[in-house]
Amino acid sequence: MPPWRARPSNNRTRSSRLGAETFGRRSETLAGWFLRLKGYRIVATRVKTPVGEIDLIARRFGTTAFIEVKARQHRNEEAEALEAVNTSRISRAAQYYVARHPALAETPLRFDVIFLAPGTWPRHVMNAFQGE
Fold first, then answer.
1. Pair type for strands 109-116 and 63-71
2. CA triple 40-66-61, angle to 5 deg
3. More exposed terminus of the chain, fewer Cβ within 10 Å: N or C?
4. Eight-class DSSP state of 120
5. CA–CA separation, 13 vs 34, rounded Å?
6. What CATH number corresponds to the domain at position 69?
7. pLDDT at position 40, please?
8. Distance of alpha carbon 107 from alpha carbon 98, whole angstroms
């Protein structure tokens, strides 16, 4: 039997990863629109750096916010989602981004988290953690 037929569960894993990727992208898009409604200007989305990824970068009133989007199937999973935020990775990625955009070093910076769950309003936690 060919090796690709020997592992039928691989298709489920691949489809679940694609489903999670789609869910994540939709969540980030929704979070971006939520921030726009609050008066933020989205500077960048899905910023990939050698040290990590930043979901959203937004500006409002001269402050730059590096935003992590956490989507869960249920609202009561919010606490575990906050624990899952890799603050050091986001902080390093933000440092890398600021190094590439030196004008940002002169502005206030902060790290926010937006929690999303179906059937509820997004929850925006400003200054969710301090950068390193």
1. parallel
2. 35
3. N
4. S
5. 31
6. 3.40.1350.10
7. 93
8. 10
- Cβ atoms of residues 92 and 52 within 8 Å: yes
**CA-CA distance, 31 to 121, in Å (whole number)?**
10
DSSP for 13-75, please give it.
HHHHHHHHHHHHHHHHHHHHHHHHHTT-EEEEEEEEETTEEEEEEEEETTEEEEEEEEE-SSG
Q: Residue 92: CB partners within 8 Å, gap ≥ 6? A: 49, 51, 52, 132
How many domains, in total, are found in the chain?
1
Tokens of 16: 């679940």
Give the whole-angstrom CA distance, residue 9 versus residue 121: 36
Cα–Cα distance measured from residue 96 to residue 93, given in angstroms and rounded to the nearest whole number: 5
In the numeric block, which tokens belong to residue 1?
């039997």
Structural domain that includes position 119: 3-129
pTM over 0.85: no
Euclidean distance between CA atoms 60 and 40, whole angstroms: 5
Phi then psi for residue 127, to 5 deg, are 50, 50
